Amino acid sequence: MSNVILFKEDSAFTQKIAGERNIPYELKDFEYIGPRELPLTKFEKNKGLERKLLFSIKTSAWRTYNTNDGWSEWRLGRPLLLGGITLHQRSGKWKVVASPATYYTAK
How many angstroms separate the Cα of 8 from the Cα of each of 5, 44, 99? Predict the structure, then answer.
């Protein structure tokens, strides 16, 4: 997740991918929760899926930055689409199938 979250002192930072100019986010009290085993459906089992794991992301608050106004007010919870990481195991191999890296970057 170092490609999505940057840790500096007591804060975590990320940037929402938004066209030409990414939007910086500061995340308060960032933590990973899990892994948590998710139940498999009959369809998933028939397709060879062996296990599903979820690592959730939790923050108490977040704010954004823009060059005109500086940092926004803190908002409770976590930003939309920064929910967690889902992994699937098939034939003993793990694959990330859902990740905030689609929408966020630390670069």
Answer: 10, 40, 22
The answer to the question of residue 91 being in a domain is: yes
Average pLDDT of the chain? 93
Is 1 inside a domain boundary?
A: no
The structural domain count of the chain equals 1
Q: What are 38's strand-pairing partners?
A: 52
In a domain, 45, yes or no: yes
Q: Retrieve residue 33's tokens.
A: 């929760």
Three-state SS at 39? coil
pLDDT at 2 over 80: no
Instruction: Copy the structure tokens of residue 8.
Output: 């500096």
Say what the pTM is: 0.82
Residue 34, SS3 per DSSP? strand
Distance of CA 15 to the CA centre of its chain: 11
Residues 14, 67, 5: CA angle, nearest 5 degrees: 5
